């Protein structure tokens, strides 16, 4: 069992294998765990904000980088789950750990929606650029719909949808505990919970992409016709990857909403929809580690730019994408890895 | 002998064009059968009808006595049909070993998977290239890798679409020997082929297609001696032997 898990963690579909990689991995996790001791609460909370987005990026890496299906509308699932969390918790509060149940229900809602949408996409044999167009349209429809819900008649129970002003006031995550609930405000406690969740999701996805399922997924990316002619129902595999990846987008949405106690329709808008594609493309879409590291780096750089360069941040992000696509089409991290291999080979 | 693959009044039209015209074809279990014909004769279309990539305008396709006319391609594969495409259909960014793993993982895992991969690599003359990226193989090696993936499924019927396209004469001959070895192991083979030397090497029976219809059928000797076949191929009859 352990040997099998080890084999799957180190399979051919993930770069970074062997003792050197895992030593580095442990050091990074330990450093991340020690990080809050060396900085202030605001910075820790801000780091959690970055972590929140990574789930969506990893999900897109699975769908696009591994499965070859570019979804341009992962924010639809992000927003759907975020609003679902708001509606549930504004109506039922946060007692008895209900927020945790709300997370599960909200992610499940995004998974069900992904199953329905994905069924029509993949069983309708929509692929390539059309898949991107349809998924983008879906997220824009959601954005437009939510944007016109400003009136008081747009409410579900106690939850006002609130149009472009966004939905506010939902409680943060709470964990029921002896002697009183632990409320996870964007600070050290939430940091550890999200860090642990990130490690679990990352390792779980590593196992998934190196499993038999992952083998078929990359086969479909490489040559869908050949994959089908090896007896695989290509549509089914693409659909499952889409559901898992979109659930992770939903998870990001819930975590974002509970983190800031706030969600607006613009989280499903055109700019928002483009950003995950940029993170994943820049980092290196066809590898989980590259996606994770790349997304974190791009988010950090983007925020720094926003603080110091305000409106130029998006321009720089766009330029970064163009440069990466031109010079390292597989993404920065695989690009750097390839370059260092060539330099070592040249010596 | 019983027919392993059979078509009954099979038709395929693209608009006004009848590309497959009332084809009643029988492939016997255990034979190596070649499908030849001039360009545009409808060989590829017939092939795609067998695979389920095209659906017929009318008529039926039977496999081992079962009607498979409306089955999806992957469902036909699961029934024991396997295919090798004309352009090498491999997973280019993956290693040779991964390519074979993906084909074999239906029915093997762990040590027996590794053993079977080693055996196949030997058979395909690819042992030295096992961990290379499939994209970096030579054209002939790519063709062999795809044959390897096709036979990994342990098919009862192997469909080959111009398996030697782009190969050197030596590679073509080696491929012919592979096909004969597979046939000796009981695999029925249907190949679309242009190269008559290759057809002579492997085929027990030949079917000539012309304008979407079966034009002639027989052994290689019968077909090569058939003046009408030479006529459609070359536009004249050439009796220089």
UniProtKB/TrEMBL annotation, chain A:
Keyword RNA-binding listed: no
Q: Transmembrane segments in this chain: where?
A: 20-38, 50-69, 76-94, 100-122, 129-147, 190-209, 239-256, 262-282, 289-308, 314-339
Its cellular-component GO annotations read: plasma membrane
- Where does it reside? Cell membrane
InterPro entries according to UniProt: ABC_transp_permease (IPR001851), LivM-like (IPR043428)
Keywords from the UniProt entry: Cell membrane, Membrane, Transmembrane, Transmembrane helix
Quick check: keyword Magnesium in the entry? Answer: no
Topological type in the membrane: Multi-pass membrane protein
Source superkingdom = Bacteria
Q: Which GO terms describe its molecular function?
A: branched-chain amino acid transmembrane transporter activity
Spell out the Pfam families in the cross-references.
Answer: BPD_transp_2
User: PANTHER family this protein is in?
Assistant: HIGH-AFFINITY BRANCHED-CHAIN AMINO ACID TRANSPORT SYSTEM PERMEASE, SLR1201 PROTEIN
Protein's UniProt name: Branched-chain amino acid ABC transporter permease
Give the species this sequence originates from. Skermanella aerolata
Automatic annotation (TrEMBL), chain B:
- The reply on keyword Transport is yes
Enumerate the transmembrane spans. none
Entries under Pfam families matching the protein: ABC_tran
Q: Which PANTHER family match?
A: CONSERVED COMPONENT OF ABC TRANSPORTER FOR NATURAL AMINO ACIDS-RELATED (PTHR45772)
User: Record's Gene Ontology CC terms?
Assistant: plasma membrane
Which residues are in the ABC transporter domain?
Answer: 5-236
Source organism, top-level taxon: Bacteria
Name this protein carries in UniProt? ABC transporter ATP-binding protein
* InterPro entries (UniProt xref): AAA+_ATPase, ABC_AA/LPS_Transport, ABC_transporter-like_ATP-bd, P-loop_NTPase
Molecular function in Gene Ontology: ATP binding; ATP hydrolysis activity
């Amino acid at each position: 069992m352990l040997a099998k898990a080890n084999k799957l963690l180190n399979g051919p579909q993930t770069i970074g294998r062997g003792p050197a990689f895992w030593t580095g991995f442990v050091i990074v996790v330990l450093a991340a765990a020690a990080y809050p001791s060396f900085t202030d609460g605001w910075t820790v909370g801000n780091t959690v904000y970055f972590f929140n987005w990574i789930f969506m990026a990893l999900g897109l890496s699975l769908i696009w980088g591994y499965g070859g299906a570019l979804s341009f509308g992962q924010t639809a699932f992000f927003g759907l789950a975020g609003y679902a969390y708001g509606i549930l918790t504004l109506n039922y509060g946060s007692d008895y750990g209900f927020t945790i149940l709300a997370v599960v229900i909200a992610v499940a809602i995004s998974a069900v929606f992904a199953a329905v949408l994905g069924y029509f996409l993949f069983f309708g044999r929509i692929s390539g650029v059309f898949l991107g167009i349809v998924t983008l349209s879906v997220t824009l429809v959601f954005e437009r719909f939510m944007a016109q819900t400003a009136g008081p008649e747009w409410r579900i129970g106690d939850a006002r949808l609130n149009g472009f002003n966004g939905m506010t006031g939902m409680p943060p995550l709470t964990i029921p505990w002896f002697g009183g609930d632990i409320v996870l405000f964007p600070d050290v406690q939430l940091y550890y919970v999200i860090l642990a969740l990130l490690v679990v999701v990352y390792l779980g996805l590593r196992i998934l992409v190196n499993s038999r399922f992952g083998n078929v997924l990359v086969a479909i990316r490489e040559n869908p016709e050949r994959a089908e002619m090896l007896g695989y129902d290509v549509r089914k595999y693409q659909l499952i990857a889409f559901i898992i990846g979109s659930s992770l987008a939903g998870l990001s949405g819930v975590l974002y909403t509970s983190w800031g106690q706030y969600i607006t329709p613009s989280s499903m808008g055109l700019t928002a929809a483009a950003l995950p594609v940029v993170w994943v493309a820049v980092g290196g879409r066809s590898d989980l580690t590259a996606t994770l590291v790349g997304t974190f780096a791009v988010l950090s750089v983007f925020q720094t730019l926003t603080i110091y360069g305000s409106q130029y941040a998006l321009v720089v992000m766009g330029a970064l994408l163009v440069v990466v696509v031109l010079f390292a089409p597989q993404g920065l991290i695989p690009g750097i890895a390839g370059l260092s291999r060539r330099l070592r080979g040249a010596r | 002998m019983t027919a392993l693959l059979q078509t009954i009044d099979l038709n395929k039209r693209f608009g006004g064009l009848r590309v497959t015209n009332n084809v009643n074809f029988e492939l016997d279990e255990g034979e190596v059968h070649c499908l030849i014909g001039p360009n545009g004769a409808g060989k590829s279309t017939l092939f795609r009808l067998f695979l389920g990539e095209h659906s017929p305008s009318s008529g039926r396709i039977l496999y081992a006595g079962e009607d498979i006319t409306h089955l999806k391609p992957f469902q036909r594969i699961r029934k024991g049909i396997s295919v090798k495409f004309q352009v090498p259909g491999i997973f280019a960014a993956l290693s040779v070993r991964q390519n074979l793993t993906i084909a074999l993982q239906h029915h093997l895992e762990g040590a027996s998977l590794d053993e079977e991969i080693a055996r196949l690599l030997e058979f395909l003359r690819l042992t030295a290239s096992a961990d290379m990226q499939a994209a970096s193989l030579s054209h002939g090696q790519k063709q062999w890798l795809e044959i390897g993936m096709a036979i990994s499924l342990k098919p009862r019927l192997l469909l080959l679409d111009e398996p030697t396209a782009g190969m050197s004469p030596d590679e073509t001959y080696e491929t012919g020997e592979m096909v004969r070895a597979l046939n000796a192991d009981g695999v029925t083979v249907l190949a679309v082929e242009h190269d008559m030397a290759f057809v002579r090497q492997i085929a027990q029976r030949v079917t000539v297609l012309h304008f979407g219809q079966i034009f002639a059928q027989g052994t290689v000797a019968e077909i090569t001696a058939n003046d009408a076949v030479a006529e459609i191929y070359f536009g004249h009859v050439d009796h220089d032997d």
